[in-house]
Write a structure and sequence with these properties.
By secondary structure, the chain is an alpha/beta fold. It contains five helices and nine strands, in the order βββαβαββαββαβα.
């Protein structure tokens, strides 16, 4: 049970329904998409076994693992999820929704890009939908998305602060026009943590 790992780190969940909670992030390498705003360097990766991951995360007092990427579903199997579940870890995933999510996960986030209908057909129900948005992007209908407890608009952060602010203001206006959505800022970027 080896995984290609980009990094493992302990921090606070910076966005979405679990924002502010201590979490162990396991960033898996690789993705089936090439989003221009992706913040992961996929050239950095190493093969790591489940036992090695467990050894690395034992020092952290937290019991929440967040499988992220890239696209974690390219590597994450039920056997791996079950391995950590048996070690009493709760597990969340942040996925683009192109692949079926394990039913063994404790919290599921789908962040569809482009055509959102695929996410609903593959994963009809999740805990949250978190949609990355730039100024001018059209919002999909909720019917085209998986059923979720929370629907978040997440402004895309760019190296240009003016563009980032424009994206934030646009999302604020969209939430005011469409109150079934909530705003999710990436607070980890604002407060300077990973």
């Amino acid at each position: 049970m080896n995984l290609k790992i980009n990094e493992i780190f302990y921090s606070l969940q910076g966005e979405g329904g679990r924002q502010g909670e201590a979490s162990i992030f396991i960033r898996l390498s690789g993705c089936n998409l090439e989003c221009s705003f992706c913040d992961t360097d996929f050239s950095e990766r190493k093969d790591v076994s489940a036992d090695q991951i467990l050894s690395a995360i034992k020092a952290f007092p937290c019991r929440w693992i967040v499988w992220t990427g890239g696209e974690p579903c390219l590597q994450l199997t039920d056997d791996i999820v079950l391995f950590f579940k048996r070690k009493t870890y709760l597990q969340a995933i942040e996925s683009n929704g192109y692949y079926r999510l394990s039913s063994l996960l404790d919290y599921t986030v789908v962040s569809p890009k482009g055509n959102t209908a695929y996410a609903r057909s593959i994963n009809p129900q999740v805990n949250e939908v978190r949609l990355p948005i730039e100024k001018g992007d059209a919002l999909p209908s909720l019917e085209s998305l998986p059923a979720a407890a929370f629907y978040f608009l997440s402004p895309i952060f760019t190296p240009d602060p003016t563009t980032t602010q424009a994206n934030i203001h646009y999302c604020v206006e969209q939430v005011k026009l469409h109150p079934q959505w909530r705003l999710s800022l990436q607070i980890h970027k604002w407060i300077g943590i990973e």
